[in-house]
């Protein structure tokens, strides 16, 4: 009964005045706080609840609702959804690629068991559920330049395996029970005021901090390792626009989104236009280099562009200007 009632709701767009009530898991990672800010601007501060298992910094705690939520504790999650009349769930809780390889058992628990809890909860409570996937959901046998939405996916990391599992479970529950599952495959996300933590693309954030603090950067990837990347503002905007897209416009439930692709040497060259003395040395780390070599070099996001109008705004040169400017501001 619940499911058919949900189906009925979903065949028409929500009434214009009906604001979603959003819960964000893993909210203190690289993406949660910025997404909450954007959603709060549109839907009101109290309608967007950040959650995590860590204690929030004072500025986050003072800027809107924050609650403790452990994605491994189903009852805790259910209580939050019920008590707060949640209608949208954004599931950011996950261990990233490099840290996942260092702790496979924990990655399996958080990325797979945690996801199962969230899927069950979304189905039970008729939620619109957003789960990010990644360039890491592809592997060495996938087409790499560019990787399309639909192709062979045989990732070689526990992170990638858990993300493919999430894509398939969400789509299965969508087709079988009508779960409003929405999934974007993110490139490496670059942000000035939040750290990614444990990924393979993290170098592309650290290089800006080191360029400004010491003028030297040691890169754990080879100079010519090309990966898809995106400015965090584009990532947040894509997520909100995709969550708002009418159901009838979505021909897929999992879309690639792209903005730019660069190598460490190319981003260093772009930074040198502003900081000519930047010195980069390359000391490839076996685990992260092997992971990066198995990931797409470019992403084909033509389906997202066609179906719901996705367009990135930041080019590499704009991203570099913004990152240097924002980090300089933080340091003064
Ligand atoms: C990682 O490097 O693990 C993440 C990702 C691309 O999903 N940033």
UniProtKB/TrEMBL annotation:
Origin: domain of life: Eukaryota
Q: Extract the signal peptide range.
A: none
Which Gene Ontology MF annotations are present?
L-threonine 3-dehydrogenase activity
One GO term under biological process is: L-threonine catabolic process
What is the stated purpose of this protein? Catalyzes the NAD(+)-dependent oxidation of L-threonine to 2-amino-3-ketobutyrate, mediating L-threonine catabolism.
Assigned protein family: Belongs to the NAD(P)-dependent epimerase/dehydratase family. Belongs to the protein-tyrosine phosphatase family. Non-receptor class myotubularin subfamily.
* Name of this protein: L-threonine 3-dehydrogenase, mitochondrial
Quote the range of the complete protein represented: 537 to 868 of 875
């Amino acid at each position: 009964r619940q499911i058919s009632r949900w189906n009925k709701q979903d065949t028409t767009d929500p009434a214009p005045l009906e604001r979603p009530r959003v819960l964000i898991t893993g909210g203190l990672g690289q993406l949660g706080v910025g997404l909450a800010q954007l959603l709060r601007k549109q839907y009101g501060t109290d309608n967007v609840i950040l959650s995590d298992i860590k204690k929030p910094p004072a500025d986050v705690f003072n800027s809107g609702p924050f609650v403790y939520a452990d994605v491994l504790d189903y009852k805790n999650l259910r209580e939050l959804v019920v008590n707060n009349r949640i209608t949208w769930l954004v599931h950011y809780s996950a261990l990233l690629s490099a840290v996942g390889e260092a702790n496979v058992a924990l990655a399996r628990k958080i990325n797979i068991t945690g996801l199962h809890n969230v899927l069950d909860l979304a189905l039970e409570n008729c939620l619109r559920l957003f789960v990010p996937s990644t360039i890491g959901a592809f592997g060495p046998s996938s087409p790499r330049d560019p990787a399309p939405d639909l192709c062979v996916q045989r990732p070689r990391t526990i992170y990638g395996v858990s993300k493919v599992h999430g894509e398939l479970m969400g789509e299965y529950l969508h087709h079988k029970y009508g779960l409003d599952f929405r999934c974007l495959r993110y490139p490496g996300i670059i942000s000035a005021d939040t750290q990614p933590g444990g990924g393979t693309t993290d170098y592309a954030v650290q290089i800006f901090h080191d360029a400004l603090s010491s003028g030297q950067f040691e890169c754990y990837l080879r100079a010519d390792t090309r990966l898809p990347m995106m400015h965090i503002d584009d990532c947040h905007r894509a997520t909100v626009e995709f969550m708002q897209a009418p159901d009838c416009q979505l021909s897929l439930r999992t879309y690639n989104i792209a903005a730019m692709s660069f190598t460490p040497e190319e981003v260093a060259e772009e930074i040198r236009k502003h900081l000519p003395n930047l010195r980069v040395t390359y000391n490839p780390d076996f685990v992260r280099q092997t992971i990066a070599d198995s990931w797409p070099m470019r992403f084909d996001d033509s389906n997202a562009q066609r179906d719901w109008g996705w367009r990135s705004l930041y080019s590499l040169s704009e991203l570099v200007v913004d990152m240097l400017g924002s980090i300089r501001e933080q340091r003064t």
